[in-house]
Write a structure and sequence with these properties.
The protein is of the alpha+beta class. The chain has a single domain, classed as Nuclear Transport Factor 2, Chain: A (Roll), CATH 3.10.450. The chain contains 5 helices and 6 strands, in the order αααββαββββα. A 6-stranded mixed beta sheet has the order 2-1-6-5-4-3. A hairpin with a 5-residue loop joins strand 5 and strand 6. It starts with 10 loop residues before the first helix and ends with a helix.
Length: 154
């Protein structure tokens, strides 16, 4: 979907709106939100190690009933096809915190449009990379029940 007429990703937004030291984890964060917003599935998948795990959201949800996350490239592709590909998405970082070189914690707001419904969500994401700079873990905390209420009310 990723309709650029309504949501757009600006390189200046990603690079200067919320500055932080350039580390492997922070680069992975910046590239992850940029590729998700632009609909670049393969570039997004290429950011991850073969054994990476994505928890988005952390805990049980409709698309992850057991709360175990999406592990491995095939499951990450399934995650994209379920959660990122079908929506218009813009992620705006509010605060970026480096925890060494291989962990980045980011407070973000996401603007999402799905099936004509627009909503905003506050999130906290933790990006972890290996020494090669590949994401090994992505954990995103957000209010699943609140998002479901917004979508079902419209």
């Amino acid at each position: 979907m990723n309709d650029s007429a309504n949501f757009s990703v600006s390189s200046s937004l990603l690079d200067t709106s919320c500055p932080a030291k350039d580390t492997p984890a922070m680069r992975a964060h910046r590239l992850s939100i940029a590729n998700a917003g632009l609909g670049n599935k393969q570039a997004w998948l290429d950011l991850f190690d073969d054994n990476a795990v994505v928890h988005d959201p952390v805990g049980k949800s409709q698309h992850d009933p057991e709360g175990k996350g999406f592990a491995g490239k095939a499951r990450l592709e399934e995650f994209w096809d379920t959660m990122i590909g079908p929506v218009d998405l813009l992620v705006i970082p509010q605060k970026r915190i480096n925890v060494g070189d291989n962990i980045a914690c980011v407070v973000m707001t996401s603007a999402i449009r799905i099936h004509g419904i627009k909503t905003y969500m506050e999130m906290v994401a933790i990006y972890e990379t290996n020494d090669a700079g590949k994401l090994t873990s992505l954990k995103v905390y957000w209010d699943v029940d609140g998002a479901s209420e917004i979508l079902s009310a419209n």
